[in-house]
Write a structure and sequence with these properties.
It is built from 7 helices and 10 strands. The protein is α+β, with helices and mostly antiparallel strands and 272 residues long. The chain folds into 2 domains: 87 residues, Alpha-Beta Plaits (2-Layer Sandwich), CATH 3.30.70; 146 residues, Trafficking protein particle complex subunit 3 (Muramoyl-pentapeptide Carboxypeptidase, domain 2, 2-Layer Sandwich), CATH 3.30.1380.20. Strand 9 and strand 10 form a beta hairpin. Helix 3 packs across helix 4 and helix 5 runs antiparallel to helix 6. The longest helix is centred in the middle third of the chain and has 25 residues. It is elongated, with a radius of gyration of 23 Å. 25% of the residues are buried.
């Protein structure tokens, strides 16, 4: 029986604030205990406060929570200050800050961006990556593609180390599954790899790649470099792009081949 693809839902990272006189931005901090979030949301519901967007984050090793929300008070029976005062009265809440958003574009209290518990991160639109690749290709030709590919490879090194630390006894199948999960979770795409130990050619397909929907973008050598490095970290041999890439704009699937690198037969530049 053919297995069905799971449903995926967009991970929306709220960076830009919804503007409006009746839309304050609240950051609520407190002790991370059972029922704490329910107590906070019950107060919002009691006063008719509509939650536009928000997120919950842990702090201090999971001992505290941070609840960041944009709240629509247009139909609420309280002001933002009254809401904050009532929230502060909860035993589990230690702090509440309120920022009005009439002239605010971005959230005001969440910094820095943390990935994998302790690594600093930046949020970058897919267009920025696509345009960078396009410009390097125009300026440097095949050498630009090679450079992007190597950037992709280098950017996987810390991720591979993290996976080894988290899963020290994992076999290759588990590491491969973890790597593809990582690519999906961080937004690069839904990766499928056909690779067997001993083979010198690897076929890769990526559904909904990072560049999908960006006008004029048909490939990502950065993405290809990422896959190349995670294959090397698992299987032990280095691969380079064969130059065979295809993007189906209808199915939104990016397909490419990676071949084992042989320094004594062909150069990196020829393979890319």
């Amino acid at each position: 029986m053919k297995s069905e693809e799971p449903d995926y839902f967009p991970r929306r990272i709220t960076v830009v604030a919804p503007l409006g006189e009746a839309v304050p931005y609240l950051v609520i901090g407190g002790s991370d205990e059972i029922g704490a979030l329910a107590k906070v949301t019950s107060i919002k519901a009691k006063h008719g406060v509509n939650l536009i967007s928000g997120g919950t984050y842990d702090a201090e090793g999971g001992q505290k929570f941070i609840f960041s929300i944009f709240a629509d008070l247009a139909r609420a029976d309280c002001s933002s200050d009254e809401l904050a005062t009532e929230l502060k009265g909860l035993p589990c809440v230690t702090s509440v800050s309120v920022t009005q958003t009439e002239d605010v574009v971005y959230d005001q209290r969440l910094f820095p961006v943390i990935l994998f518990e302790e690594n600093r991160a930046v949020i970058m639109p897919g267009e920025s990556i696509a345009f960078m690749e396009r410009d390097l290709n125009k300026q440097l030709g095949v050498q630009g593609l090679q450079l992007i590919f190597e950037v992709g490879r280098s950017s996987w090194l810390s991720v591979a180390a993290l996976h080894r630390n988290m899963l020290p006894d994992a076999d290759r199948d588990t590491l491969l599954s973890t790597a593809t999960d990582d690519m999906r979770a961080r937004g690069w795409g839904i990766v499928s790899v056909q690779a067997e130990e001993g083979e010198t050619k690897v076929k890769v397909s990526v559904r909904e790649p990072i560049f999908a929907g960006i006008q004029g973008s048909q490939s990502s050598w950065w993405l290809m470099g990422l896959v190349s490095e995670f294959l090397e970290s698992i299987y032990g041999y280095r691969t380079v792009g064969s130059g065979r890439t295809k993007f189906n704009a209808v199915t939104r699937v990016f397909s490419f081949e990676l071949v084992e690198y042989h320094h004594d037969t062909r150069s990196n530049r020829e393979l890319v």
